[in-house]
Write a structure and sequence with these properties.
By secondary structure, this protein is an alpha/beta fold. Helices cover 45% and strands 16% of the residues. It has two domains: 151 residues, no CATH class; 240 residues, Metallo-dependent phosphatases (Purple Acid Phosphatase, chain A, domain 2), CATH 3.60.21. Strands 1-12-2-3-4-5 form a six-stranded mixed beta sheet, covered by helices on one side. Strands 6-7-8-9-11-10 form a six-stranded mixed beta sheet. The longest helix has 50 residues. The chain is elongated and about 85 Å long. The chain starts with a helix and ends in a 5-residue tail after the last strand.
């Protein structure tokens, strides 16, 4: 998939400047723009393939952010140019056909130097840009740039979404903040984390779950960053995501523990009248495929190993919305997940549905309420288009008793 995407982007480096030049009539020489686009694309693909973005390199982080936005712009503009070029080619084909017929009709196929000259002039006009093709090209440029800027600005803010879930056997309401996918590192650091934690404290929760992908770069592993978590006056828990494995799971967990956050790695904790099981990041089962597989664990094998109490309602916390059937079999009344980012930005918002049937919001799977967060942050291009950064505030309430 990575190779295919790379080939498409390399093709776009040559096609987009060429098509824009033909449609807009500018620039006359497109090869410098083709070389520049190729250099930027190869640079971005090289950063992704080498995983330089994981290392504590500020210059690499800035380059990764900028090139990520260029990558999205190139994808959008390629789509627009393909569409525009198709219209241009069809329209010009019609013009050429008319141009060839026009001299013959006027001069009744008499061969003369004047007729040949006239035909050549008309054919040249049929190949040149027109006012509508210029408008099409420039409108596409403005639209794609506007979408990238809008998405980049939108990615810098988050929203609070609220849910109420009844739990049978719960004695009194419990407020939980669910904040997976912060992705502290290249794009997000101390300032963004401060704003998130201030919003969390304003909710006065009983519990907070940082459900995986807390960190995606070693740039975030700093004392002044992780000390911020100590200001939250609530029980805080952390479960692993796939990005912790890329950065170094043990390294991240050491920082998490120093911040006073409790780590759940396929473990149970009973608090506030609820038993929470925080799972390590894993596949649903051995038959499942995962593009982000980082270990050989499987939910259908690991969940039965955890001792559960029949006296407290069960809530399972796992980074990815997979293995819901095994969570149901364990008797969970709720499952908290993230990982999908809701697709993060178009066209990912359409493609995500084929990979994760439950990709954002609330779902009901039999007796189990499944909450899938769009994530408190972003990964890759710092953009949101069609989705939003969110912090979920979940109020677990006693379920009405029958009769």
């Amino acid at each position: 998939m990575f190779i295919f995407a790379g080939l498409v982007l390399i093709f776009s480096a040559f096609f987009v400047p060429f098509a824009f030049g033909r449609l807009a009539g500018w620039p006359k020489r497109v090869w410098p723009f083709q070389l520049l686009a190729l250099a930027l694309i190869v640079g971005y693909l090289g950063l992704v393939a080498s995983r330089v973005f994981i290392e504590p390199n500020v210059i690499g982080a800035v380059a990764y952010d900028f090139l990520g936005l260029f990558f999205i712009f190139q994808v959008y503009f390629l789509g627009w140019m393909l569409f525009s070029w198709l219209i241009f080619v069809v329209a010009k084909s019609i013009d050429r056909a008319r141009a060839k017929r026009e001299p013959a009709n006027r001069i009744k196929r008499k061969k003369s130097r004047a007729m040949a000259k006239y035909r050549k002039k008309v054919l040249a006009r049929a190949k040149s840009p027109t006012s509508w093709s210029r408008i099409l090209a420039l409108a596409g440029l403005a639209l794609c740039l506007g979408l990238v800027v809008y998405g980049a600005v939108r990615a810098r803010f988050f929203e609070v979404t609220r849910y109420e879930i009844p739990l049978a056997g719960l004695e009194k309401p419990v407020t939980v903040v669910h904040a997976p996918d912060l992705h502290l590192g290249n794009s997000r650091g101390k300032a963004y984390l401060e704003s998130v934690l201030e919003a969390i404290k304003a909710e006065a929760p009983d519990l907070v779950f940082y459900n995986g992908d807390l960190v995606d770069s070693k740039l975030a592993l700093r004392k002044d960053v992780f000390d911020l978590f100590k200001s939250v006056p609530a029980e805080q828990y952390f479960t692993t995501g796939n990005h912790e494995y890329y950065v170094g799971t043990d390294l991240v967990i050491d920082w998490v523990k120093q911040a006073g956050i409790k780590v759940l790695r396929s473990e149970r904790v009973i608090t506030h009248g609820i038993q929470f099981v925080g799972l390590e990041y894993m596949n649903a089962d051995r038959q499942s495929t995962d593009a982000h597989q980082v270990n050989q664990l499987a939910m259908d094998e690991e969940l039965p190993k955890i001792t559960l109490s029949p006296y407290f309602p069960l809530v399972v916390v796992h980074h990815s919305p997979v293995g819901v059937q095994y969570v149901q079999e364990a008797g969970a009344l709720a499952m908290l997940t993230g990982h999908t980012h809701g697709g993060q930005l178009f066209p990912g918002t359409l493609m995500i549905k084929s990979r994760f049937p439950m990709f954002k919001g609330r779902y009901q799977a039999g007796p189990t309420a499944v909450l899938v967060s769009q994530g408190a942050g972003t990964f890759g291009p710092m953009m949101r288009l069609g989705t939003r950064n969110e912090i979920q505030v979940i109020k677990f309430v006693p379920a009405p008793k029958a009769g």
